[in-house]
Amino acid sequence: MQLTGTPEEQLSQVVAATEKVAVFPLSSSQWASARRQLNDSLVSYGIKVKWDPNGEGLDIYQISMGGQSACFLWETVPGTSNEGSLKPHSCS
Hints:
By secondary structure, this protein is an alpha+beta fold. The chain has one domain (about 5-90). The chain is built from two helices and four strands, in the order H-H-E-E-E-E.
């Protein structure tokens, strides 16, 4: 993954890429593979995407970059199983 722009723009790019991971069912090998590929592509930027950072079984993605973290909750569109978006969420 190639990131460009300000840190805020880069975060938006990472959120968009994370949404492409979140559409897969958590139990699928596609989800695990896509998440691993996403993290592998971000390692050179010092960015990491972690799922369920608090170990609560919630569909929360924590994006850590530049010593700071932001969390996002995956919310599916009602009536669908794989359409949705990441919404800002508390990490605690």
